[in-house]
Amino acid sequence: MSLSIMILNGPNLNLLGTREPDIYGHDTLAAIARDLDTHAASVDVELRHFQANGEGQLIDAIQDAMQWADGVVFNPGGYTHTSVAIRDAVAGSGLPVVEAHLSNVHAREPFRHTSLLSAVCVGVVGGFGRDSYFMALDGLIKHIQSAS
Ligand code: DQA
Question: Cα(46) to centroid of ligand 1, in Å?
């Protein structure tokens, strides 16, 4: 089965590679996206990548994905911990969404321990650096395939 999946990244993730590399690693978002594309193609999955720093842009991307995507891997960045509006967009989309984080948010500052999104996602992956995206993608593909 051929699937279409959106890889959605929130604020400041465009700075990966130079942003706090001790926490987020040295890979750029473009390098991660390229390797995700290679992996996805090997299992007949098409990826579309989108990154935005604004809450409204991310909500628009989720609403747009309702027209074409089978699911979403989403690193909401700092909005994870603050955004009711993005949570509502995920819940309202009806799409299976996997929340992904490079860092283990539960091992960091207390304000990162709460996610407003996890309860409306099918799963959460965090703490494995760039591998979190690959694990989230594989989990999402299995979830979609088992549900269909
Ligand atoms: C992050 C964790 C968030 O707390 C932080 O605000 C980010 C990145 C992660 O991938 O580990 O921007 O989502």
Answer: 25
Q: What is the per-residue pLDDT across 107-136, written as a single tens digit (0 to 9) for each?
A: 999 999 999 999 999 999 999 999 999 999
1 Cα: distance to centroid of ligand 1 (angstroms): 32
Reported as a single tens digit per residue, the pLDDT across 8-61 is 999 999 999 999 999 999 999 999 999 999 999 999 999 999 999 999 999 999
Domains assigned to the chain = 3-74+84-102+123-147 (3.40.50.9100)
Alpha helices in 25-130 (DSSP H): 29-42, 55-65, 84-93
Q: How far apart are CA 53 and CA 56, in angstroms?
A: 9
- Is 24 among the catalytic positions? yes
pTM here is: 0.97
With beta carbons less than 8 A apart as the criterion, state whether 11 and 112 touch: no
Query: What is each CA distance from 110 to 1, 41, 54, 121, in whole angstroms?
Result: 41, 38, 23, 21
Q: Which of 49, 79, 101, 106 is catalytic?
A: 101
**CA-to-CA distance for 83 and 76, rounded, in angstroms?**
9
Q: Quick check: CB of 105 below 6 Å from ligand 1?
A: yes
